[in-house]
Specification:
about 475 residues; alpha/beta; seven-stranded mixed β-sheet; five-stranded parallel β-sheet; 13 helices; about 25% strand
Length: about 475
Amino acid sequence: MSVRHFDIVVIGSGPGGEGAAMKAAKSGKRVCVVEQRPLVGGACTHTATIPSKALRHAIQRLVDVQMDHPELRVELGHRWKFKDMMRSASTVVSRQVQLRTTFYERNRVELVVGRARFLDAHTLEVDEPRGASEQLSAKSFVLATGSRPYHPPDLDFQHPRVFDSDTIFTLRETPMTMIIYGAGVIGCEYASMFRQLGVKVDLVNTRERLLSFLDDEISDALSYHLREQGVLIRHQEQMERVETRDDGVVLHLKSGKRLRADVFLWANGRTGNTQDIGLEALGIQLDSRGNIQVNDAYQTVVPHIYAVGDVVGIPSLASASYDQGRFAATHIVEGRLEHKLVKDIPSGIYTSPEISSLGRNEQELTRQGVPYEVGHAFFKSLARAQITGRTVGMLKLLFHRDTREILGIHCFGDNASEIIHIGQAIMSQDGPGNSIDYFINTTFNYPTMAEAYRVAALNGLNRLFEH
């Protein structure tokens, strides 16, 4: 069998693989991307970020129309089914695939569809869908194979009433009741979405509070608003077993509780797509969830084999994965690291309302003994929020009392994931460029949501006093 040779072979065409391939191609390298799906984009485009956020938007539009026109509420709720919401999401996925396919074509990156496996440290064998296979060799490899929902062995995911965050998109009818097991980011997002569709949701959390990595004030706000919407949250519960029936599911908890619903959504963790790639034979070890260990340059223990994106674990964000792919390719091509660019990554959590945060939270600063102060801007006080009716939420700035350096930005409310970037631009500045005074000395358009930064800065600076 003949072997085709490349400078770099990337496995996976999600954000991480795309970032690596584009950087390497623009640097003049001969690049090949191997993708198991017939279309590019990875899980981000086909089963995770894009379809879930497009679904959320479609649901939000329906809710907005119902709020603006109460007389249509019953008619609209009866007419629109879950599959109608997904039809809107599918059009976005198609557009994304078309767009991203042109990236590879324009940059002369070769695409090979099939499943890849290492024969040795420099050679891949790719099994193509029609049964043929070919071999590819390269000086360097980038593993960007992503992740999938973790499946506990005793849960029957073949049952038509049991779903994970990938298969939930195949749901045909909107259920009356739903149990979501796992209250991480994915669980909270789907609890919010299905509750807006009128589904009675039990959200089972294995921990003490929702999204404990967030600032406590933001986590508390999320809990409050989910409960206000009608989501029943159950903390510190562990699954014993799931009983599947023709007419529903029963969740048996170790605490002795039993919950019944029409459908069950498993949202408790993901696992790296590393099975049957031949990594073990190369000495590349995996953790218990199939994730690959890498160094600061995203190199595995085999230096010319890199890994990026969800397959290396946290932060497991599409935005971070793209940058990781670009940084790995930079190290391959130029032999240098771009550490500074990945220090602070904003999180975007698409509940309703949204959550976004950047930097340290109050708990961390208190533990570290950092003298900080807090500035708040509540959306209900902003003219733009009053105009749009999106008055739920706030912007919270944490800054150093002495240097006035911004230490953390936390936002809860409509368009939080967009609003965060204004503060990010200032927080990323070196030395005196990172100062809360920027928001005092800058004129913001009025009325805007961006004005929240000026309000929060003034609120925080008013708390300062001389020793």
